[in-house]
Write a structure and sequence with these properties.
The protein has 189 residues and is an alpha/beta fold. The protein contains 6 helices and 7 strands, in the order E-H-E-H-E-H-E-E-H-E-H-E-H.
Length: 189
């Protein structure tokens, strides 16, 4: 009997310490538990681009059959993800995109549409007149960039709604809250 070669799936996570990303990992592990012929390698970059780049290099050296990656930031991770794709290793990008589009599939939200909906909602709440502080995620991530772009497209020049400031929350609730409090204090003076 010919023994089947085990497949190796590698998952490079940008940061794994929040509930949403932990759930993502647990769901992957659950699905893979039904496939004993697949080995699963997981790396958490803890929000560090250089760590994630080095982890992906290390994973590729292990002769992986598939790379799933949630890039910490688009620009810094694009070259390494492109190099994996160019080696004909299938790449699935999840949640956040790279800049080049060199991957086999993207699994994630339509962040431009999310931004547009937030902009429409803001215009409605403010009745097309007022000032708003825009809280963004980590500034180099595709999700943050696309959401801000969609929001600004909806606010546009045609309304009397103006963005009084952009608050960089970095996807961290406490940081976003503190930065917004500072913004409100400055605006109320």
């Amino acid at each position: 009997m010919v023994q089947k070669k085990k497949r190796i799936i590698a998952f490079s996570q940008c940061i794994g310490n929040d509930a949403w990303r932990q759930t993502m990992l647990e769901e992957m592990k659950r699905e893979l538990s039904f496939n004993p012929d697949i080995d699963f390698l997981y790396r958490d970059a803890h929000g560090d681009n250089n760590v994630q780049i080095n982890q992906i290099r290390e994973l590729v050296k292990q002769d992986i059959d598939l790379l799933i990656v949630s890039p910490n930031e688009a620009e810094p991770l694009t070259p390494i993800v492109d190099s994996v794709f160019q080696r004909n290793i299938p790449v699935i990008v999840t949640d956040r995109k790279t800049s080049s589009g060199q991957y086999n599939a993207y699994v994630g939200a339509d962040n431009l549409a999310i931004g547009k909906l937030a902009g429409q909602y803001s215009r409605t709440i403010l009745q097309n007149n007022g000032s708003i502080g825009l809280v963004t995620g980590l500034s180099g991530t595709s999700a943050s960039i696309e959401r801000e772009k969609g929001f600004m497209q909806q606010i546009g020049d045609a309304t009397a709604v103006r963005v009084s400031g952009v608050i960089h929350g970095g996807w961290e609730k406490n940081k976003a809250y503190l930065e917004m409090r500072k913004h409100i204090n400055v605006m109320s003076q």
